Amino acid sequence: MKITTILIIITILVTVLFSYMSYASNRRTERQKYTVTKKEDLFEIRYYPKSIMATVVSPGANFEGTKNNNFRTLAAYIFGGNKENKSIAMTAPVYMEKDGKGSKMSFVLPAQYQLNELPQPKDTSIQVHYSDEGYYAALRFGGFANDKRIEEKQMELLEKLNHEGYEIAGNFKYLGYNAPWDIVNRENDIIVKIAYKN
Question: Fewer CB within 10 Å: C terminus or N terminus of the chain?
């Protein structure tokens, strides 16, 4: 009994330590730049300049059913699966959204690159393109995110925007900042483009 308890405590301590190390590494990862232009009750308005993204779309009505395949496809591209066999640094966040075409995932590529400097993917399902710059309403939340929780947060943001009189000008997007194995200090955003003038 004592040995089992000790093993459980050691496992918990190792898991928490690994998670904190992963979090520290995540904080050193390059993040997409934005400027907070206004803070509202429970959400903020951010200006996102254009960034370069690598995007893949797959059929599917939910994130959980497609995210692993989409992630592997994009990870293969940045880890050398391109026509120059060139590695590209991972950044944060990872974008996910759903529309009439299916489930979409995007990696933000490092700011040091111009579009014409990036290698072409070997996988033709990947598109390398500029993001849509503009003003976005953003709601931040912690913990783990699944389809149900993402939809709840989208509805929460939608209700707040309607209440404050903001006009939505795009699809809702989920932004994840953590590795799947991170346990503590998880960061998530729901963003949506709005008609806004600073």
Answer: N
CA dist list (Å): 1 to 11, 14, 130, 191: 15, 20, 58, 49
Give tens-digit pLDDT for 66-124.
788 999 999 999 999 999 999 999 999 999 998 877 899 999 999 999 999 999 999 99
Range of the domain at 23: 2-46+133-195
Tallying the residues shown for the chain, one arrives at 198
Nearest to 82 by CA among 109, 112, 105: 109
**Domain harbouring 85, CATH code:** 3.20.80.10
For residues 193 and 172, the answer to whether their CB atoms sit within 8 Å is no
Same domain (yes/no): 171, 189: yes
Q: Which two tokens stand for residue 180?
A: 């799947």
Q: Report d(CA 119, CA 126) in Å as an integer.
A: 12
d(C-alpha 121, C-alpha 111), whole Å: 18
